[in-house]
Please model this.
Amino acid sequence: MLLEIPRVLTAAQLEQCRQALEQADWMDGRATAGYLSTQVKRNQQLSENHPVAMRLGAMIMDSLEQNAAFMSGALPAKVVPPLFNRYGENETYGAHIDGAVRPIAGSSDRVRTDLSATLFLSNPGEYEGGELIIEDTYAVQKVKLAAGNMVLYPASSVHHVSPVTRGARLAAFFWIQSMVREDHRRRMLYGLDASIQALRRESPQSASILELTALYHNLLREWADV
Ligand code: NI
Model:
């Protein structure tokens, strides 16, 4: 399931990100790539212990904890703190698969990457190219979102970022270990939750709300690893 989550950041938070990232010292993105990825990765990144990355990453994590669509769609158990990348002209990241397990810097904890997330920090008009292209189960999806919006997709998908031919593309990216590791189960829970929310708006007195909510929690109890 590909899930677009709008307005993860406010306009003021976005501006704060942009200003800090424009002045930051970027390094070659190949520093964090595995053997296969090194051959296709041409971009820039902030190191994971860069003070700007840590400060902005914490701000994004705080926003996500308040974001109902993210919580419902990802059912997060653990989140790798966000990293930041920049694609200038002629930079690209060819077809690759994200590693299955990520260490968390400064801790002995590790995260199984069930979901990948890209939070767009540049607006589509600021650059040409730079689409995130995901080979989903049924189709190839091209994703290029407004600044402040985020896409969540199964980390098991092969994906690439097409070359930027003008301007620059800034983004935050990270991974999530979900309480429910199977994509098809998360999709059913997300659909059920959305239907319950709609029923609460449309018929707040309906007895079905309690029955469906019980069903939601009992399915989550069956499937969740915590
Ligand atoms: Ni990737």
About this structure: The chain has six helices and 17 strands. Helices lie at 11-23, 35-38, 51-65, 68-74, 183-202, 208-223. Residues 119 and 150 are 4 Å apart (CA to CA). Residues 96, 98, 159 surround nickel (II) ion (CB under 6 Å).
